[in-house]
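Supplementary Note 3. Input sequence used for the single-chain structure prediction.
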Amino acid sequence: MNLKEKLSNKTIAYWLGCAAAVIALVGLIIFAVYKSRAGEGTGWIFALIIIGILAQVALFFYDGKYGDFIAILPPVLYVLSLALGLSGGVGNIADAVSDIVMFGIPELAPLNYAIAAILGAATIVAVVPCFMTREKQSA
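The predicted structure, written as discrete structure tokens, is reproduced below.
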């Protein structure tokens, strides 16, 4: 099966998964900017997002017996990275909201909000294809 046939055989569910991977990639870039500005967080966030994106890429080549299990990986990994990202930014958000500096860097709070919104959106968009077929069924 050539590339054109493989792409034409994909349904909207597959393309929603790809959109979730692109959104997660944007979140990864924003998290890298956040870390470069002395933001708090672990390297696990990078790993979780990258593995989630790679799982979505794997569904292009494989959608067999374990395809449904692979499709569950991206939303789970994105929500874990969201939780880890928020736990590292609680001090920043608290200081920005209270307008006093105690725990974090209040200037980084907008990046924490952006990371939360983008990874939340990636999670929601990645959950939807889990309930749909990713390839057109032959009659």
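The chain has one domain: 10-131. The chain has a mean pLDDT of 88.
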